[in-house]
Write a structure and sequence with these properties.
The protein is α/β, with parallel strands linked by helices. The protein is about 40% helix and about 15% strand. It contains 22 helices and 21 strands. Bound molecules: adenosine monophosphate. Its EC number is 3.6.4.13.
């Protein structure tokens, strides 16, 4: 078992071990700290503020070569900590006196661009005067122009909009030192290959390039060979095995619903003791506090805890004073408490090895154990890679419903009556109640019910029914994926609502004559209109125009943004049509896939 991140040749797909090992040993204590990696002191302070205790494996592997100025190709997915892996070295070397942008991060979607820009903001909290600017399609040019004029040290943008600014000469990349391609495979799938290559080719030759991608199709290999020199190639060894006596399940849940989901899990799962894993020190404290306020006996353990305090808390868990520990990976190392029947991965781990360490905290001493993993829409790929790396199947567990919770409450209620019938105290109350019934002439069941209400102490016994599905549907995933993390196939079919979104036909003024491809249409419209791949229906490219199915209720701003969009240099002039739907029975996504396969045979 190897917890060291490996710097080595990058395989076509994230690496698996040839042979799974039987039992996962404890995490390697020799992993470097952020300070060991030569990160700027102000950035270190920000990391401590956000509560990162240790570099994740991808960070431990990527930061040293990046700090040395080497080019880098990293196989990494969302959730591994790759953003900090490239952001920290950039921030540690930024020159505040240079006005023209020094660093450019290209990301496939506006959502990711914003997320990356926010991460830069958090990590640079103690660097006064540093400006990070997100630029993406769909936002007005005015805000972006103002930001560019003021001077941005770091620009995070979607390729289409970056190209637009370059063409308008409103973005000066002549002094660029660092270029990061984030989710490179995704950018190609969205039809941004030409834009990405243009940016790579027209920016200064001596810049440092870091390319991150979840997969390594030949086309990305070609780009890295062509534009990167002597690149360090990193991937994290995923040699892991999970114990057979631990049942593994996952719950698919929106980020905002995680706490609610956890409270339901705590009600319906019968557990003895539980350890809940989160990513940061702050999160351990916050979550433990929230659980305590809901009546659970929970405590936090993290790397800040003095050894004595840590031992006391673990002692309490062993003796049953505490039932729930909320922990970071670092704090839970080596924890061996037989009572732990459940491990909950509240935040998905960065890598499969951490997952194995985490779930190894249950199923001790020959007992069986339960491992639960919360997976948000963006993290679906990580689920697939954990399954592959651990060679195990993680079953889906539906989010416990209101009915599940309520029937558990009823069972617990009746069990508690049974358990107390022989309690010596009942003799005292029996006399009092008999007197009350005789005096007031009320049925015994009414009195018992009134007592149960008193015992509830003002809280409702049953959960109210869930709101109707439309009101609680989590935000639609813009890039739907199957459970292996691959983009979910979209089946072409008759004109009908896709998900809950009715589609309409739109006409755009570019066609075969303008040499447009389905990929570039999807990419441009998704980027400029802030749409997800799931918003596309059929695409029918005609000689001088194209019919595209898009959501019927596009907002006015989106339509305006799309009217201004250019593909192959031509304004697309999007308009809704009442004509028949596009003829070709192919979805935009399928077209895109086909296009992808045509360009990169063998994938
Ligand atoms: P990313 O893969 O960059 O999207 O990061 C996934 C999540 O991990 C984000 O919520 C980060 O804030 C968090 N994260 C990144 N690095 C660390 C670290 N070293 N320790 C704890 N959390 C981290």
């Amino acid at each position: 078992m190897n917890t060291d991140p490996a710097v080595r040749d990058t395989p076509e797909e994230p690496a698996d071990s040839p042979e799974p090992t039987a039992e996962a040993p404890e995490a390697d204590a020799s992993l470097p700290t952020f300070a060991d990696l030569g990160i700027d002191e102000r950035v270190l302070r920000a990391l401590s503020d956000v509560g990162y205790e240790m570099p994740s494996p991808i960070q431990a592997a990527a930061i040293p070569p990046l700090m040395e100025g080497r080019h880098l190709v990293g196989l990494a997915q969302t959730g591994t900590g790759k953003t900090a892996a490239f952001a920290l070295p950039v921030l540690s070397r930024i020159d505040l006196s240079q006005r023209a942008p020094q660093a450019l991060v290209l990301a496939p979607t506006r959502e990711l661009a914003l997320q990356v820009a926010e991460a830069f903001g958090r990590y640079s909290h103690h660097i006064p005067g540093l400006h990070v600017l997100p630029i993406y399609g769909g936002q007005s040019y005015g805000v972006q122009l103002a930001g560019l004029k003021r001077g941005a040290h770091i620009v995070v943008g979607t390729p289409g909009r970056v190209i637009d600014h370059l063409e308008k000469r409103t973005l000066d990349l002549s002094q660029l030192k660092y270029l990061v391609l984030d989710e490179a495979d995704e950018m190609l799938q969205m039809g941004f290959q030409e834009d990405v290559e243009t940016i790579l080719a027209t920016t200064p030759e001596e810049k440092q390039v870091a390319l991150f991608s979840a997969t390594m199709p030949p086309q990305i290999r070609r780009i890295s060979k062509r534009y990167l020199t002597d690149a360090a190639e990193i991937t994290v060894a995923n040699r892991t095995a999970t114990a057979a006596n631990v049942r593994q399940r996952y719950i698919f849940v929106g980020h905002q619903q995680k706490l609610d989901a956890l409270t339901r899990v705590l009600e319906v799962e019968s557990f003895e003791a539980m350890i809940i894993f989160v990513r940061t020190k702050q999160a351990t404290e916050e979550l433990a506090e929230r659980l305590r306020s809901r009546g659970h006996s929970a405590a936090a353990i993290n790397g800040d805890l003095a050894q004595q305090q840590r031992e006391r808390t673990i002692g309490q868990l062993k003796s049953g004073v505490l039932d729930i520990l909320v922990a970071t990976d670092v704090a839970a190392r080596g924890l061996d408490v037989e009572r732990i029947s459940h491990v909950v991965n509240f935040d998905i781990p960065h890598d499969s090895e951490s997952y194995v360490h985490r779930i190894g905290r249950t199923g001790r001493a020959g007992r069986s154990g339960e491992a639960l993993l919360f997976v948000t829409p963006r993290e679906k790929r990580l689920l697939g890679s954990i399954e592959r790396a651990t060679r195990s199947t993680i079953e889906e567990m539906p989010l416990p419903s209101v009915d599940d919770v309520n029937s558990t409450r009823v069972t617990k209620f009746t069990d508690s009556i049974k358990a107390n019938l022989d309690n010596p105290e009942t003799a005292i109350f029996r006399g009092l109640i008999e007197e009350y019934i005789a005096e007031h002439d009320v049925p015994a069941a009414d009195v018992a019910a009134a007592l149960a209400v008193i015992a509830q102490d003002g809280k409702s016994f049953l959960l109210p029914p869930d709101p109707p599905p439309s009101a609680r549907r989590p935000a639609r995933d813009p890039n739907p994926r199957d459970r292996n993390g691959r983009p979910a196939p979209r089946v072409a079919g008759p004109r009908r609502p896709r998900g809950d979104v009715p589609l309409a036909t739109y006409r755009i003024s570019v066609g075969r004559r303008h040499r447009v491809q389905p990929g570039s249409i999807v990419g441009a419209i998704a980027n400029e209109g802030g749409l997800g791949r799931g918003d596309f229906g059929h695409i029918d490219i005609q000689a001088d125009h194209t019919l595209v199915e898009l959501p019927a209720n596009l907002s006015r701003e989106t339509v305006e943004a799309l009217t201004q969009t250019r593909i192959s240099g031509k304004l697309i002039q999007l308009t809704k049509t009442d004509g028949p739907p596009p003829q070709r029975q192919r979805s935009g996504f399928d077209n895109n896939r086909k296009q992808f396969r045509k360009s990169y045979p063998g994938k």
